[in-house]
Amino acid sequence: MPIDAANSFAPEVQKRTIAWLEQNIRYGEVFLTAQNAGLSMIGPLGGKVILVSRFHSNPYVDWDRREFVQRQLWGALASDDCSTFLLDARLYRLSSVMTIDGSTDQILDGTCNLHLVFEAQPFRIYRLTRTDGT
Questions:
Q1: Total structural domains in the chain?
Q2: Tens digits of per-residue pLDDT, 68-97?
Q3: Position 134 in a domain
Q4: Which of 36, 1, 6 is CA-nearest to residue 21?
């Protein structure tokens, strides 16, 4: 699914990240990332995010609940509370995390079963390795 129009004004590093996502994203894959990345990078490729801006959100989805979950997921990662992170990740079918320097918290490779699969600063993409069979 080419997104050349959306990509034409992006910085080179963002273009490389989008190209990687285009080759590796699974349709419907759920990401934890910055709100704006959901609309500009993940959504156009068929992915989903925990949270987009309130303005762009589905009016039938409880935005406040999603915003709470997003904060809880980032907080669990920051405090190394993997049981909370993995419980919410399973509940929301989260499979990937994309960190963006200056926009999201940073995590270490291996934190809560998240493994670095792509890096082009400021972007890092981690995939969740499930140990519970889901």
A1: 1
A2: 999 999 999 999 999 999 999 999 999 999
A3: no
A4: 1
State which residues form the domain around 31.
4-128
- CB distance 82 to 112 below 8 Å: yes
Q: Is the peptide bond before 59 cis (omega within 30 degrees of 0)?
A: no
Q: Other C-beta atoms within 10 Å of 53: how many?
A: 11
Alpha-carbon span 40 to 35, nearest angstrom = 9
Domain for residue 110, yes or no?
A: yes
Residue 68 lies in a domain: yes
Joined together, the tokens standing for residue 10 give 């992006």
Q: What is the greatest pairwise CA distance in the chain?
A: 41
45 close to 1: Cβ distance less than 8 angstroms: yes
Global pTM value:
0.86
